[in-house]
Amino acid sequence: MPQHPSGAEKEKAVQAMFSSIARFYDLNNSLLSLGLHHRWKKRTLEAVALQPGEKVVDVGAGTADLSLLAAAQVGEKGVVVASDLNEPMLRIGLKKVLDRQLRQVRCLLGNAEGLPLPDATFDAALTGFCIRNVSDLDQGFREIYRVLKPGGRMACLDFSRPVQPVFRKFYDFYSFTLLPKIGTWVSKDQTGIYQYLPDSIRKFPDQEGLKKRIEAAGFKDVSYQNLTGGIVAIHSGIKE
Ligand SMILES: C[S@@+](CC[C@H](N)C(=O)[O-])C[C@H]1O[C@@H](n2cnc3c(N)ncnc32)[C@H](O)[C@@H]1O
Fold first, then answer.
1. Is 136's C-beta closer than 6 angstroms to any atom of ligand 1?
2. Distance 74 CA to ligand 1 centre (A)
3. Domain contains 2
4. Count of domains in the chain?
5. What would the pLDDT profile of 123-149 be if each residue is shown by its tens digit?
């Protein structure tokens, strides 16, 4: 990964990394978060309070964990679009969808910065650990806003900034030192994704900073909740 990639260069590097580790993504997620990512994802679903029959888009769905949770809540009369730019990641998501015979889930290859979806279509939008990876996060939020119906709800789950200074020190040691070693060893990765991960978290806006960026995209009633001491945060907002 180049030192400070942006635009198309960042997109290419990020996609190469996800293609490289797609097969190990779920395993590494569970190992590196000590299983916590399941809880974080369930809490993200709670933030949008889905109803049976609703239409949901999962932006940067990857291996489709959030989409599967959403499918259970909207039921057979609902629709879940699991959208991602990375084919190897989305293929793993598609396999899970087919194994569970979830007819309400559609997998769609597409860029979060230009979603191949019509305006004002969805009751809710989810995005988990994706927005940090897109080249232009403001454009990502504007796209989510565009495809939501008026009154539509959005929840964004991503890494953030631990609140307690002592905990932050411990977390920095873990994420800069241990995590890259374990992640790289498990996936035999050669693209540097598990070094990119802590670097990308440090460059990503903190809780308040991200709230402002979401508001700038047009969302109202934007708020956030910290989980696991602020390692991750769920931001939510409403399209007026
Ligand atoms: C860390 S994974 C998260 C996957 C899943 N949402 C989860 O929570 O486990 C990030 C995903 O974002 C996708 N992604 C990154 N940039 C993207 C973009 N510009 N458009 C669409 N997807 C993108 C990657 O391909 C990858 O599948």
1. no
2. 22
3. no
4. 1
5. 999 999 999 999 999 999 999 999 999
